Amino acid sequence: MKRRAGASEKKEAKKQKLLEELGESWLPYLTPRDAEFHQLSWFLLPTKLECKSPEVNIGTDPICQCSIYNVASLPNWKTRYSKLFLRKADKIPQELHHIVQEAFLTLQKHDCFFQDLVRIKGKDFLTPVSRILIGNPGCTYKYLNTRLFTVPWPMEDYEIKYCHPELFAACKALIKLNDYLNVEAVQALQEQNLSETRETENTAVTDREQDISTFIKGSLLEVQSSLYTPRNDCTSLKYRTSYNLTLLNYMDPLQMPYLKQEPYFGMGNMAVSWHHDENLIERSTVAVYNYSCEGSACDKDNEQYVEGRDPADWHVGLKVAWDIKTPGLAIPLHPGDCYFMLDDLNMTHQHCVLAGFEPRFSSTHRVAECSTGTLEYIFGQCEVALQNLQVDSDSAALSLKSLEVQVVKEVEGIHNEVEFEWLRQFWFQGKRYRKCTDWWFEPMAKLEEFWKKMEFMTSLVLCEVGKGERTMEQRNEIISCFLPLLTERQELRKEWTARCQCQLAMSLPEEQKPKCHPLWKDDDPSMPLPYDLEEVIANLQTLLE
Questions:
Q1: Which helix (H) or strand (E) holds 108?
Q2: 291 with 45: CB under 8 angstroms?
Q3: What Å distances lie between residue 365 and 40, 45, 241, 277, 523, CA to CA?
Q4: Which of 344, 350, 489, 508 has the fewest CB atoms nearer than 10 Å to its CB?
Q5: What is the Cα 106 distance to its own chain's centre?
Q6: DSSP label at 510?
Q7: What are phi and psi of 259, to 5 degrees?
């Protein structure tokens, strides 16, 4: 917790320093309207967009409202975005466009997109973007202190019952998109490594077309046969591109009462602020499919030259992290366009999403770091903890096999992990997952059974240290390792209870309102310990003294 808080403070300090350096001026940024935009060393950039103002010199760009340096004089600035790979919509199979865009609309029709109640610097916020996580069964993804649980997409050996056949079709379409983007990402990384020797380029393109054709016919990639992330081999292309989930986003900017303004470049309304994507496998590629619903909000036939980015269009903004010398980018995203952040681009750069006028969906495919974020993992943790519990075969009485300090510490740590990283995270999101499938409810009920056994194990530790059968040194050693974990449990229960009762939580629709669970009254005969541990902690502190 302290390390996470420290990182957040450092990030805020960097942000404030950057804003102080800027003063009232804007940093320069490039769009397809700028000649310099087309001088960048794009990796596999498709046909160049028309440069509408080739005479523009960013050194005197009126967008910046100040006299700034000429970016062309900066060393290597043209290669700073070489790991951004764009794939225009007309280069992607039309059949794939059709099923993916239909999937977006289906999920919206069944009310499957939700704003997340996230926690930033100790405060709760509703995200302006509505989201749903779809991916490998049993996988989770954590961002902004919020653990999302995948709506599982169809996979062999898993029986997944969807609430409607249309939802099955939608999830099936998204795994097809996932497979397509995997092929594209692998090919992009391979071609970048071979950028100095291009003799095999034609063969590579032909192979890629054959691969895509195979996917559209319905076969699944071999990499999907492995449910979770492969072993830690960062040199493996499969390891860095085996997307195990996608975070889908939806926002209608005209329905938003307020959107933040981009603070560094003056790029306008932001749907998503500057950030690095969290909790991903190191150097893994992020792939994004964009679909904005075109309508009548802007008349492209009467389009006139506008300074900076066109506010009617959605854009992805990109900048080198904490760098004020390299110009930023605002890249327009049209329906069906894809972009890939290859290799370490997500680590060295930050990106944001700039709102247009039309409603927009996106599917952001990631290799999530799931070492502690799968059902397989947390059930394994429970198994480790419960090994210290024994049941008398005759009386069914419970007892602990060991009171060794390290064993007690490990078990109580797992106890906290199950309660606060899984049970409370899941129920804090209300009943939202029932909109798509009830897949998660059986394993969460099983997890709660294990957690309840751990409550009994905690009560057994308390009984043992209160018996007076051990020396003072032995007793103090157990209490000293045990007390901080119990104190953390008490503090986190207070925090989660308050979050469930906050004004934002109460304002949500009934099926989305957070549920404070597990929750019980102190006199509940089925529970060995009270919900409020204040008195228990005070008694332990007395024994320690």
A1: helix 94-109
A2: no
A3: 25, 20, 9, 11, 47
A4: 344
A5: 22
A6: G
A7: -130, 140
- Long-range own/partner contacts, residues 66-70 (CB < 8 A, 24 or more apart): 66/25, 66/26, 68/25, 68/28, 69/325
Task: Please state, rounded to an integer, the average pLDDT across all residues of the chain.
Answer: 84
Give pLDDT tens digits for 234-261.
457 888 999 999 999 999 999 998 999 9
> 110 pLDDT exceeds 80?
yes
Return d(Cα 220, Cα 24) in angstroms, integer.
Answer: 52
Helix (H) or strand (E) holding 518: none
Torsion of CA 146, 152, 157, 163, to 10 degrees: 130
Per-residue buried b or exposed e for 128-146, using 16+ beta carbons within 10 Å of the residue's own CB: bbbbbbbbbbbbbbbbeeb
State mean pLDDT over 376-399. 95
Cα–Cα nearest to 339, from 314, 321, 310:
314
Measured in degrees and rounded to the nearest 5, phi and psi for residue 239 equal -65, -35
**Res 470: pLDDT:** 82
Which has more pLDDT, 196 or 276? Answer: 276
- Contacts for 503 with CB less than 8 Å, ≥ 6 apart: none
SS3 assignment, position 9 = helix
CA separation (Å) from 27 to 21, 81, 264, 349, 424? 10, 17, 6, 16, 43
Q: What count of other Cβ atoms lies within 10 Å of the Cβ of residue 520?
A: 13
Residue 174: its pLDDT value, please?
98
**pTM for the complete prediction?**
0.84
Q: Is 275 helix (H, G, I), strand (E, B) or coil?
A: strand
Q: What's the 3-state SS for 286-346?
A: EEEEEEECCCCCCCHHHCCCCCCCCCCCEEEEEEECCCCCCCEEEEEECCCCEEEECCCHH
Kindly indicate the confidence band of residue 107, based on its pLDDT and cuts at 50, 70 and 90. very high
Confidence of residue 27 (pLDDT cuts 50, 70, 90): very high
- List, in sequence order, every residue forming a beta bridge with 362; answer none if it has no partner: 249, 290
- Asked whether the predicted pLDDT for residue 206 surpasses 90, the reply is no
Query: Using an 8 Å Cβ cutoff, are 131 and 429 in contact?
Result: no
Cβ–Cβ < 8 Å for 356, 292: yes
The residues that bridge with 390 in the sheet, in sequence order, are 399
Judged against a pLDDT cut of 80, whether residue 200 lies above it is answered with no
Task: State whether residue 111 is helix, strand or coil.
Answer: coil
Question: Is 29:325 a contact under the CB 8 Å cutoff?
Answer: no
